[in-house]
Amino acid sequence: MSGIVSRRGNNVHRNITVTPFLNKLYSMVDDRASDDLIRWTSDGNSFVVLRHEDFAKEVLPRFFKHSNFSSFVRQLNMYGFHKVPHLQQGGLMADGPGAESWEFNNENFQRGQPDLLHFIRRKKG
Predict the structure, then answer these.
(1) Cα 19 to Cα 100: distance, rounded to the nearest angstrom
(2) How far is CA 70 from the centre of its chain?
(3) 46-82 b/e with 16+ CB inside 10 Å = b?
(4) Is the pLDDT confidence value at 89 over 60?
């Protein structure tokens, strides 16, 4: 997927740039080869990272210049992604080293709809 999304509206052609982070993120989640570590949820409205330490070592360096999971999560937050809380035995499941999966969502990040990426904006610092 390129960094430019072309749309026609009111017969005016305009180009909308999608940031490299979002293009790489979409490619990473959409890559079936890494489904054991990162994949779409069954409804396609969010994605889940499994075994985040392995994900950081094996998948992140293929797409980014680092293998730091905390930096990856910080970037997600800057683009308006939210961690989806999970319930376990009536309470929230704990985060941290023992947590097996991390689920994130953004209303404009959906399986099969890369044309929505241009709606996602980085928060101003």
Answers:
(1) 29
(2) 14
(3) bbbbbbbeebbeebbeebbeebebeebbebbeebbbe
(4) no
Per-residue confidence (pLDDT) for residue 93, from 0 to 100: 53
Stretch 72-94: mean pLDDT = 81
Q: Can you tell me which residue has the tokens 């610092």?
A: 125
DSSP letters, 73-108, are HHHHHHTT-EEPP-EETTEEPPPSTT--EEEEE-TT
Residues near 90 by beta carbon (within 8 Å), at least 6 away in sequence: none
Q: What is the pLDDT of residue 99?
A: 57
Torsion sign across C-alpha atoms 57, 98, 95, 40 = positive
